[in-house]
Design goal:
alpha/beta, four-stranded mixed beta sheet, 4 strands, 47% helix, globular
């Protein structure tokens, strides 16, 4: 079972080419912070409805607490550079 915490960039890029299902096929659970939801869905970028569809289908999950987790993980030496997602 592979879970990820994903930021906005992969979601926007895959959604913009109508290939968000690739992420669904690679990971059993994709968690996005509330801030990522706001940046993607609430901003209304083209194809953001595909992200809403993933949330409604429950393979994309929005969590408020992931921001604290991301902050904690980003302080680790091997994760101090920018990454698009964190795999558990």
């Amino acid at each position: 079972m592979v879970k990820v915490i994903c930021n906005a960039t992969p979601l926007i890029n895959f959604a913009s080419i109508n290939c968000l299902d690739i992420l669904k096929s690679l990971f059993t659970e994709i968690v996005i912070p509330q801030a990522v939801y706001s940046e993607t869905v609430e901003s209304g970028f083209p194809n953001s409805e595909t992200i809403v569809n993933g949330i409604e289908a429950a393979w994309l999950k929005v969590h408020n607490s992931t921001l604290r987790l991301l902050a904690r993980l980003s302080s680790l030496p091997h994760l101090n550079s920018y990454c698009g997602c964190i795999v558990e």
